[in-house]
Amino acid sequence: MRGSATDRVVTPRRGVRGAIAVSLAVGWLTVCGLAVAGCGASAPAKRDVIARGNAICLSALRAVRSQPPPSAAGSLPALADYLKRVVPIVDKEVAAVRALPRPAHDRALLDRYVSALTATGAEYRTLAAAAARGDRSAVAQALAALRASTAAPAAARYGLSDCAGSGATVT
Amino acid sequence: MIGELFLNGHHAPRRGPHPQRPQRGLAASVAALATVTLLALALALAPALTRADMPSSLTVVGTSDVSDSGLMQNLIQPMFSAAYPQFTFKYTGTASGTAISNAETGAGGPSVLIVHAATLENQFVAGGFSDEPFGRAIFINDFVLAGPSGSDPAGVTANGAHDVVQAFAGIATAGNNGGGSPQDEFVSRGGTPGTTTQEHKIWAQVAALPSPPAGVLLCAVSAANGGGDTPIAAGNGVTASGQPCPNGGALPTGSALPKWYVVTGLTQGPNVVAANACAGYPSSACYVFTDRGTYDYLASGSDGGVSIPNLRIVTRDDSATAPGGADELINYFHAYIIKPTVAGETVNLTAAQDFVNFLTSPTLQSKLKTYLASTSDPGGPPFVADASPIITASGIPAGVLAGKTVTVTGTVTNAEPGYPVLTGKTVSVDEVVGGLPVAVGSGTTGASGNYTITYTPPASGQYQVSTGLITQIENSTLNPPFGDLLSPASTAPTATAVHGVVSVTRATGERGGVTVAGAVGPVAPDGHDQVVLSVRRQGAAGYRKIGAAHLVAGQGVYAVNGNLAAGRWRLRVTLSDPGQLEQANSRIVTVTVPTAKQSHSVRFTRITDRSRC
Questions:
Q1: Could you give the 3-state DSSP secondary structure of residue B387?
Q2: Which of B148, B159, B249, B420 has the most CB atoms less than 10 A away?
Q3: Strand pairing of B567-577 and B589-593?
Q4: What is the ipTM of this complex?
Q5: How far is Cα B364 from Cα B369, in angstroms, rounded to an integer?
Q6: Structural domains of chain B ordered from first start
Q7: Of B458, B530, B493, B503, the residue nearest B612 (C-alpha)
Q8: pTM (2 decimals)?
Q9: Are B432 and A2 a contacting pair at CB < 8 A?
Q10: Of residues A73, A82, A168, nearest to B490 (C-beta)
Q11: How many other CB atoms are there within 10 angstroms of residue B164's CB atom?
């Protein structure tokens, strides 16, 4: 059943011509294989970028959700403590998304998302700093800016569904 | 990328050695050279063949259930490799006990362990080999008992179709046959796979029956081997069921096994195939205990030409009144990140974390129900998502006045059937801000997993209820107790519109214009609030803007004016705070702007504004 590939016996070819033919074929296949494996690798398709991007976003979301929420809603010290743990996760997400390859197809859309996400990351840092110094007005301004973030709709337009919002888990 | 998948480990089916013919002459030399060259190139191109995990590779060792069911190679591995192409992935499917041993010693260089044997997993955790406090719940399927498609000498379909303990007892009775030639065989994998540890648990329940099978001896397996009981032949030091198996609870082998109890040492799939063949045994009626994922994969012919036409499922879905109850046959799978700091380990921690996060992500969890969904099995898809608890929530409003409190209620349910209720767990209401959740209220689950949370929505936006990572003791009767990690869960985001309030307390008509004063609610949180004064001449249609004022953070009252010609006007004030509040209108006020030398007059008209919530 399984493992048949490892169990399969390759019978040796007989004769010099056969052996040379095998060697040539092996050499040619090797060259082709090398070309496919690395040297001639093509740019990733959009669907691959979407799969990788979604994985980055889901991983970040999971990491954020694994942080205990602020102990008291509305408390700036509690929010600051929470953001101290969350901002590095956001920064890591932004860096990972920025490092995604950007296929030519729909590149402008992806650029727009990356740009919006980068701005969102910066706003989160601003929010964290405002919360840390107890500046309620600056916190409100940063939250308002985050609410106006265009990252989610830009992600949705490119097809990065898991980056477009904080979706439900499976039930 | 090289998506290498090792499907058989130590329990691989043994095959006879193939005779090798000596190669002769130049042809042999050239062929040998070509082979060496090819192997060298293959090694250069295939880092997965090396023993330890490197930054670019991820080795997972685990139960053969997920490989022999095709789940790993057909669903998990392709999806993971698409999402994480930077890792060369390798899965080694073997017995859970063997996989745990390899994970503990670092043999094969694994970074992640996937198993389904709670009585062995608890020891793995207690030994300090898990990087996290417990393993993560990833999914369940169910155990089934398959038997001959024709005859049923054990009478399982009549007496044990939904009672696996009675089914085992029937097989043992027919197999023992009063000491005569076996009428059937039980084909076991032996060793310590998760399936066998579950089988041993069931044999222990058989031994505890009021009328256990006559003439059948069942000895107690050591805790180190997963506990439970296993059949043993008479004359091997066990005189009554329940006594420890010889050699400190070791598993009987060879002649110590009853004739009707066959141990193959195979992984899940090959063991089922062996039972289907049922060749070389005294009877031609083989029963096999297996997981439904593997059974469905083989029975549906999805495994490339392999089929098991001689078998059918004879026991499944235990009834609530059967020993062990309705959850007796649940097959729980867990994933562990192996602790990198244990001597001998070569863990790629980043890859391991990415992989277990992927396994528990909604992306994969939502796909499980699509796998083997179109077989003829009436039980439906065999694998069921259980990584995150199930949350219900009611009370998140579509609209609310600013500053008003909202109460949300619901329940958090453990998605692993048969495991304890989730009590004392933190639940949050989050506003989704910039794509990430920011908690605005929280509560704790009660005795039945229910919760109540009161909060004040700070702004218009998306709200959802969520739980974080939950640590849960699932079986406290085991020593050490068995626990697991339930991944964060959330409801679908729901839009809530928060409506501000703006009032007019004074409107004064003066020559050439009007001044309006009032209050806003909530107090402007930032510098984005604006009030706009609009008017229309009495009897005319449509308002036009004649003035506006920005509010600074903390401002709760306003005054705004505008130029107007003499006459009677209707005016209103609109409060807006983009991204924070829904636009709100004041009541409509009638005011008279005097001509020269005419004194002003003000009259308020109460009009219901139906645009507000």
A1: coil
A2: B148
A3: antiparallel
A4: 0.73
A5: 10
A6: 2-141+332-385 (3.40.190.10), 142-324 (no CATH), 390-498 (2.60.40.10), 501-593 (2.60.40.10)
A7: B503
A8: 0.82
A9: no
A10: A168
A11: 29
